[in-house]
Amino acid sequence: MMASCFPSLVARLLVSFFLILQCVVEGKVSGAVQPEKYDRFTAGFRPPSVPLVVVDPYFSVWSMAENLYDDVTRFWTGRPVNMSGMMSIDDAVYRFMSNEPFLPEESMKQVNVSVFPTQTVYTFQQDGVQLVLTFSTPAVWNYLYSFPVTFLSYYVRSVDGRNHTVRLYYDNSAEGTVSDNSHFVVWERVNVSQNYDTMRIGNFHQNYCYQSNDRIDWGYWFVQVAADPSVSTSMAFTELSRMSFITNSPLPPDDKNQPRPCDDMTPALAVAWDLGVVSPGITLSRSLTLAYDQVYSIKVILMKLLRQKLLRENQVNKPICKLPLTYLVCLLPVCILWRHHGGLSQG
Ligand SMILES: *[C@@H]1O[C@H](CO)[C@@H](O)[C@H](O)[C@H]1NC(C)=O
Ligand SMILES: *[C@@H]1O[C@H](CO)[C@@H](O)[C@H](O)[C@H]1NC(C)=O
Ligand SMILES: *[C@@H]1O[C@H](CO)[C@@H](O)[C@H](O)[C@H]1NC(C)=O
Ligand SMILES: *[C@@H]1O[C@H](CO)[C@@H](O)[C@H](O)[C@H]1NC(C)=O
User: Fold this and answer.
1) What mean pLDDT comes out for the span 258-263?
2) Reported confidence tier of residue 57, pLDDT bands at 50, 70, 90
3) Would you say the CB of residue 175 lies under 6 angstroms from ligand 1?
4) Average pLDDT in the 243-262 region?
5) pLDDT tier at 168 (50, 70, 90 boundaries)?
6) 331 vs 189: CA distance, rounded Å
7) Alpha carbons 83 and 61: distance in angstroms, whole number
8) Ligand 2 within 6 A of 114 CB?
9) What do you get for the CA distance between the two ends of the chain, in Å?
10) Which atom of ligand 3 is nearest to the CA of 279?
11) Quick one: how many helices (H) and strands (E) in the chain?
12) Percentage of the chain surpassing pLDDT 90?
């Protein structure tokens, strides 16, 4: 392993060296922080479509509505990729993400949405409780620090000086893993570590590059949460999971009826947290990780399939190691030019 890694390791070190050098020079020349570059993101910038999960063209989910609960969440082409969110406040259940069936009619009130370069922050308020929901995708342009996952973080606090009992719910369908909803999907739990509950769902037929479609038809969509006593997870019929949460019952057991079509008794990966009592002055938080393992990716320059090892145990650093030297050498001038012209922020 070490021998085959060596050339690209050298290239990596070279790239890092140039990048650090450039940061130092840039920092000296223009001051480390360049607020004018980011002003338009922070000063009430709200794009026509709000990015939620934006990792790559296949793993891409947006909210194309004013409020997160006015519409279903969608792929960039506009097709639904259903993700939902509910919150129970003192036994009254509200939705804050999606307007699909089997979610409560009533939604929390969205009071703010802010879009930053790698984060979207929603704030909801209802019955004296505030929920701040962030979607963070650490897709910084320098691949050394970026990671192809999206974190959903939930921050809950009481804003009326009273105690409230709070529960949270999340689910997503398998729509992000198929090019057509009639395709059969399978799901399973993955033992990544005993500290996490990890579930995955994906196409039963893993045919790489088989379809001609904007959507991917292979790979697996992962949902991972820290295995703490307040959390429960389930892979079952969406309607059942949602009804269980709404009626404050345990989530249904994992559904064994697989493979089955993505839209037949829609299987979903669901997570529920019982946060207990949130007291004034305290913020309770939970988070969830979304990731997509394409298993095989297309290596553009030589048009070759590249096996991804991401998310497999002890393999996290290896894909970078496998990038060929030519790729890095080609990339370097592009990166430097791009950086020199201010990247996207001057677009
Ligand atoms: C996603 O939500 C839309 C809108 O409610 C619905 O038409 C569609 O069937 C849902 N998808 C699945 C796989 O259930
Ligand atoms: C909305 O949220 C952003 C970022 O969290 C914050 O800077 C801004 O003041 C908030 N706006 C309102 C009206 O609460
Ligand atoms: C909230 O609950 C805590 C115990 O969980 C209790 O000590 C406190 O007095 C309660 N506060 C209010 C405002 O009811
Ligand atoms: C998961 O793997 C860990 C070791 O990595 C092991 O200790 C644990 O028992 C496994 N859990 C299950 C449910 O198999």
Assistant:
1) 96
2) confident
3) yes
4) 97
5) very high
6) 37
7) 9
8) yes
9) 41
10) 1
11) 5, 18
12) 60
Take atom 13 of ligand 3 and give the residue whose Cα is closest.
162
Higher pLDDT among residues 188 and 35, named by residue: 188
pLDDT at position 180 is 92
Instruction: Decide: 194 in ligand 4 pocket, CB within 6 A.
Output: yes
| Distance (Å) from CA 69 to ligand 1 centroid | 14
Q: Is residue 235 within 8 Å of 199, Cβ to Cβ?
A: yes
> Average pLDDT over the chain, rounded to whole?
82
- Which of these, 180, 10, 12, lies nearest to 80 by C-alpha position? 180
What pLDDT, on a 0 to 100 scale, did the predictor assign at position 298?
A: 63
Q: Three-state SS for 70?
A: coil
> What whole-number distance in Å separates Cα of residue 142 and Cα of residue 194?
31
By most ligand atoms within 8 Å of CB, the mutation choice from 70, 100, 240, 260 for ligand 1 is 100
Task: Quote the pTM value.
Answer: 0.79
Which residue shows structure tokens 């079952």? 236
For 60, the token pair is 């891409």
Residue 191 CA to ligand 1 center (angstroms) comes to: 29
Q: Ligand 2: which of 46, 112, 118 to mutate, most ligand atoms within 8 Å of CB? A: 112
pLDDT in tens, 139-153: 776 666 667 889 999
Report angle CA 315, 53, 322 to the nearest 5 degrees.
25
Helix axes 325-340, 2-30, angle to 10 degrees: 10
- CA-CA-CA-CA torsion sign (220, 224, 229, 234): negative
Please give the distance, rounded to the nearest whole angstrom, from the Cα atom of residue 143 to the centre of ligand 1: 35
Q: Say which residue the tokens 């606090």 belong to.
A: 157
173 lines ligand 1 (CB under 6 A): yes
Q: How far is the CA of 279 from the centre of ligand 3 (A)?
A: 6
Is the CB of residue 72 below 6 angstroms from any atom belonging to ligand 1? Answer: yes
Q: In degrees, to the nearest 5, what angle opens at C-alpha 131 toward C-alphas 194 and 128?
A: 130
- Output the CA 158–ligand 3 centroid distance in Å: 12
Place of tokens 């009804």: 243
Evaluate: CB of 277 within 6 angstroms of ligand 3: yes
